[in-house]
Design a protein that fits this description.
Elements lengths: L9 E3 L16 E3 L7 H11 L4 E5 L3 E3 L3 H10 L4 E8 L6 E3 L5 E3 L9 E2 L6 E5 H7 L11 H11 L3 E12 L10 H18 L2 H4 L2 H18 L2 H8 L6 H29 L5 H10 L4 H6 L1
Parallel strand pairs: 1-2, 5-10
Antiparallel strand pairs: 3-9, 4-10, 5-9, 6-7, 8-10
């Protein structure tokens, strides 16, 4: 139950098999697309079908506290220039940070700079409808992973800010649905990282991405050999680590195919930008996470 009462629950059953059934004590609208649309497309669908002043995204493996929604709404009500609010996800996140190669990771410790953060994790976030409509919602081509980073960076370019709501606490079973060290996740995270930087990074930072990514690959290799981090978990789960370089090659091949679309999106972002490339770069630097932290996560 939520202390904030004026809301509509919308469940998007992405199984394609109508597995979700309505029943007490929770009454919700249920949408049943015929196939798995992906995370971003599911949220976009719910937002179109049930318009509201705010759009809250909540993963199926996340459990919000009773004050969760009230705290997020209060954070945006108190800051009219903020278009998104980040939850406190226990042991994981107070918003996301971003590395030089475009990798984004949960942000801890708690921010201390007047509760400003870069962007929320889509696991448990609140967005103004005005922001969501103006930016076209989540980029559905991402399918899964990094779409929250993409939307948050596009929002920052457009002049929107993000607030962290410490009282909006959420317990999360991280990557419970797709698998923390699955082959699908390894591939999509790498592909979507490339999509993200070509859409959203200032031109002057693009030259930093390849050497940063190469250094991260080496850090992942060291973690793999030591049995640490996501790379170590991938190997421990019984999967062949030789797949990982193939995922990287496949991700770059898909980038080449998607490049015309990404460059068109990039031009659209710059045409409506409220920040200069220099100001945007400074914003990324203020909320940067090191490549070593990415590899260790």
């Amino acid at each position: 139950m939520q202390s904030f009462r004026e809301f509509q629950i919308v469940i998007v059953d992405n199984s394609g098999q109508q597995l979700v059934r309505q029943g007490p004590p929770v009454h919700a609208a249920i949408l049943n697309p015929p196939t798995n649309l992906g995370f971003g497309a599911a949220i976009n669908l719910a937002a179109r079908e049930f318009p509201a002043e705010f759009i809250a995204a909540l993963n199926d493996d996340a459990l919000p506290s009773p004050q969760w929604l009230a705290a997020l709404v209060a954070a945006l009500d108190a800051h009219p220039s903020a278009g998104m609010a980040a939850s406190h996800i226990d042991n994981e996140s107070a918003g996301l940070r971003i590395a030089r190669d475009g990798s984004s990771k949960q942000r801890l410790p708690i921010p201390s700079d007047d509760d400003a953060c870069l962007l929320p994790s889509g696991c448990a976030a609140l967005y103004r409808r005005e922001l969501f409509t103006a930016l076209g919602g989540f980029d559905e081509s991402f399918f899964l992973y990094c779409e929250d980073t993409d939307l948050g960076l596009r929002a920052q370019w457009a002049g929107w800010h993000c607030r962290y709501a410490a009282a909006a606490r959420v317990a999360h079973r991280y990557s419970h649905s797709a698998g923390r060290a699955s082959a699908l996740k390894a591939y999509l995270v790498e592909r979507n990282r490339l999509f993200l930087v070509w859409k959203c990074f200032p031109l002057g930072r693009l030259s930093l991405v390849p050497p940063a990514a190469l250094w991260r690959y080496l850090l992942h290799l060291a973690a793999l050999l030591a049995g640490r981090g996501a790379a170590g978990e991938f190997r421990a789960s019984g999967q062949n680590p030789l797949q990982l370089p193939l995922f990287v090659l496949r991700a770059h091949a898909e980038l080449l195919l998607a490049l015309p679309r990404l460059l068109a999106a990039r031009r659209a972002i710059r045409r409506s930008a409220k920040l200069s490339p220099q100001a945007f770069s400074a914003l990324l630097d203020r909320h940067r996470i090191s490549l070593a932290e990415v590899a260790a996560a």
